[in-house]
Structure formats: C-alpha cells, structure tokens
Amino acid sequence: MTSNPPTLQSVEDEDAKGDMEEDDRTIKDCIAPPRFPLAHNKLYRDDGSIDLEVLGEHLNAEGRLSLDDAFALIKSATAVYKAEPNLLRLRDPITVCGDIHGQFFDLLRLMEAGGDPAETQYLFLGDYVDRGCFSTECVFFLCAHKITYSDSFFQIRGNHECRHLTSFFNFKDECLYKYNLELYDAVMDMFDCLPISATINGKFLCCHGGLSPDISTLDDILEIDRFQEVPREGPFCDLLWADPVDDEKADADGGDYEDEDELMDAEPTTWFAYNETRQCSYVFGIDAVTTFLKKNNLTAIIRAHEAQFDGYKMQMINEQTQIPRVITIFSAPNYCDVYKNKGACLKFDDELLNIRQFVSSPHPYYLPNFMDVFTWSLPFVAEKVTDMLYSILSYENPDAADDESGSAGGKVVIPQKSRGVLKGKVVAVTKLMRMYKVLKENQNNIIRLKQLSPNGQIPHGVLSGGAKEIEKVIANFNSAKEADKVHEAMPGMAGKAKGKGAQAKKKIFFTKQAAMDEAAKASEADGAPKGKPQRRRKMTITKEDAPPPSKPLYGAKKPKPQ
C-alpha cells in the first residue's frame, strides 16, 4: 500500500520543522539552500504587494522562484520600463550605482550602503548580468524593487543587457541551468524596454558608456529607437559602449615614431577616435566633453562600464571649479573574484556628492560557467593517466633484454627511426605530466583565473609559465584587468575593425573638430547676455567607507530560537 505523494505545502511545512531541529550536516558552516521555490503566498502579501524582505532573505539563501512568479515579475517590470522615456529626468537626493554583473550578494551590500530603497531614490547605470553567477537573483530583486518603488527606483540599460553578450558570457547559461530558455527570452525582451540615459537636476548626464559624435543635444537621445537589440554602431551603441580617453595610459605611453601619421595614431584624441579596446564605438576626449557639456548646459557626465580599483574615477577635472567633467562609477567589488577592487556608489544631496566605498561580501561557490564536478576533476584524472602512459612508454624489461642479447651476440639493435619516435613520445608525455601537475597543484588559482574567461579557457602562455605566472596574473587589479582585456571587446568584432581603426581616428579627429567648433560658437551666441555671467554650480565632493553591514551576510548562522 502506497501513500499519496506529499503536496508542496506539506513539504514546506516539514522543511520548516526541520529548520528548527539540530543541523545534522557534516560541515556546519555550509547552510543548505531551500529545497523548493518561494511559495507564492510568501512572495506576495494579501494586498498583492511584493514582500521585498522575504524575497531578499530567500535569494540570499540561494533560493529560487517558481516559473510562474518569475515570469510575473518580469512581465510587470517590463510594462513599467516600457512606459518610461529614453531620457529620465531626475532630481536629487539620489544614489547612483554602477555595474553589478551578477554579484547579487554585493548588490545587497550596495543597497544597504546606498540607503533603504523605501526612503532613498536610486539610479542604476546598467550591466546587471554576466560574469557573476547570480544574475537571475539580481534581475528578480531589481525588478521587484522597480515594481514596488516605480517612482523612485530607476534603471538604465548597459551594454551587457543584450542577447549578443549574454550568449557569449554566462547569463544565458545561468538561465538554462536554473530555469529555462523561455525565461531568458522574457528577460531579454524586458532589457529591450530599459531607458538608455538620465539627467540629475538638469546638470548631470548619466549613461552607461559615454558620448557619441552623432549626439550633440539631449533631444537627440529622445529620437533613438531603444526597443531593439543593441546595434553594433550608431548613437545607441555609443551611449552603451563608448569610453573616455585614458589620461593615465596616455601619460605612461612614450617612444619614437617613424612618421607623423604614426604619431597621430599614438596620441590620445581630444575629440572622438575609434575604440580599439572595445572593437566598436569611440573614445572621447576633453574637447568633445567640454563642447557637449557647454552646449547642453551640463556640469558633468556620470557613467559606468569600466572596472575601477577604488570603485570610482574622476577624469577631465575643471581647473576653475575643480569638478570632474567625467565620473566613472563601478559597484561590483572584487570583480570576477579576481580584481581585488572596491565597489562604490554616488550619493547626491543638494550640492554634496558623497562617494561611498565598500568591499566584497562572501557568496556561495560555483565552478566557472556552472561547470560540473566531473569536468572540474579532469586534471586529476588526466595526471594519473599520463603518469601511467609515461610508465608504459619508458618501461624496460630486463628479461627481454637478456633474451635479445643472447640471440644477437650480446647486443640489442634498435632502429634509429624507432628510437626517435619513442623518444618523442616520452618527451611529449613528460610535458603533459608537467602541465597536469601544474593544474593539480594550482587548481584553486586556475579556477579563479577561468572566472575571467567566458569560454573557461586559460589565457595563452600562462600555464606554461608555471605556478609563478598564474599567481602573477591574479596578483593585483592591473594584472587581472590586463588578463581580462580581451573580453572587454564586443564579441565577434576582433580583427574585423582592426584595419579601419587608424583611418576612423583621423577622419573623426579632423571632421568632427570643425563641427564641434561651430557648435561651440553657436552655443556661445545663444548663451547668457553679456554682463550677466551664469552662476557656476558650487559642489563639494567627499569620500567615505560605507557603514558596516547591519544584516547578516551569506553563510552567517541564524540564531536559534530560545
């Protein structure tokens, strides 16, 4: 006689009882994730509103949502995003956040450092998914906040909110691993509806990437058709992909150049030049920035898109006001578990801009790209196999040698050709043994290194350098960023635009400069009347560490009820 299978509710009740009992896990610090998705009546209150605290606690414990609730969140958030304009017009006080990249447990810390969303206005600058292993959690949590606080919680689109990059990196794989393809498609359709820029107090332009030679006024942004996959070129692409000229890199560069053309290609542009690092879009210089700001009566550009060691970077400082014209903010600390950088957010309040920094939080461990344990164990198995192969190839049978010597007058004659083949095999196997020994002894560091690569491959030449080379690559922020540089480019564009880089640079440098000069003159002609200079915006910039977390971090044991 068989009993009826337990219902979802009965199993959850049993789990609740089990949670109250003594934990019988061998590793007490490793907390078991919830066995079932969050119940609908726990996610939603009786009035239909989302219980954000319950959702946060469930996702913090590695819990998942039912497909019905997940699709409902995505659908509701999509409707809200779709109703918003291309250019959001916001006022302070507000907290501005940079890239998240699937680091959900750092997102919880970020939102605590930035202020309670129930009392604080937020603006996120894009790149919510990819690289980290908890992108779905980030998407659900942010969507739930957008639905709850639709008038004070804002998000714009980043370059990773597209099908091209999420397929190349790991967000699509995560959706297939945790949910299904239909959910991935629904999230992509939602990303197509995200706004693409914002202004704060009418003085700060916020976007993910940067300026475009095709955008001279804010009204140009309103004319963009954003309800589509991010294109590979054009103003929409530039808003999400462009970078400011790296002043520090330009100062560090030096050397002799054979002709004037080569010198021009090496010099950082002050206008627009082809973005070699991204293999698409542009880098924009000081003249492009000052002209755009002046024409649109703006103070600065606030962007994300680039990892920063301190979580932020101030560029192109105005010598008169000491206010940076370009501010980069990055909110994913210890990016890819390798960069060792801080995360940061900007808190605007009246004339005060406060930068709050925070460090990474502990999080559950996943093998790179959701690799299974069998694949992870291959280096150990391969080492043993090559060891056995080496023993077979190098084995010498003394009895057989005696028999051969007796029959051939005491000499064993091995053909020269066979001897060379055998020697080559032994050398090859020896190299394999050495490689797999390095893999085995440096497994933890190699896994961290693979976090940088969407295809899970180690950068070329690192493994042959041994343990020292592996440690060198992940030793600090700059070396990790250099190793990860190849993945900063738009996938599939490497080599295609290589030849047109210098040509595009020269073309934009000359033709755009003339156009910008004319725009600057027109802006001056339309400006304030003589004798009444415009009042400059006085601003104070401060920096501080975020207060310590008030909520328990991942892995902290809950206190037992008395």
Task: List descriptors.
562 residues; 21 helices; Purple Acid Phosphatase, chain A, domain 2; six-stranded mixed beta sheet; 2 domains; alpha/beta
Catalogue the unreliable spans: 1-21, 498-507, 509-514, 528-534
Instruction: Identify the overall geometry.
Output: globular
| Name of the CATH first level of the largest domain | Alpha Beta
Separation of the first and last Cα atoms: 41 Å
CATH architecture identity of the largest domain: 4-Layer Sandwich
Q: Provide the number of structural domains.
A: 2
Number of helices: 21
In helices, the fraction of residues equals 40-55%
- How many strands in all? 15
Global structural class:
alpha/beta
Mean of all residue-level pLDDT scores: 80
CATH superfamily of the largest domain: Metallo-dependent phosphatases
Taking all Cα atoms into account, the compactness measure Rg is 29 Å
CATH topology tier name of the largest domain? Purple Acid Phosphatase, chain A, domain 2
Brief rundown of the structure:
The chain has 562 residues and is an alpha/beta fold. 41% of the residues lie in helices and 12% in strands.
How would you characterize the overall build of this protein?
This protein is α/β, with parallel strands linked by helices and 562 residues long. It has two domains: 37-366 and 540-545, Metallo-dependent phosphatases (Purple Acid Phosphatase, chain A, domain 2, 4-Layer Sandwich), CATH 3.60.21; 371-488, no CATH class. Helices cover 41% and strands 12% of the residues. It contains 21 helices and 15 strands. β13 and β14 (352-358) form a beta hairpin. α4 packs across α6 (135-148). The longest helix is centred in the last third of the chain and has 26 residues, at 416-441.
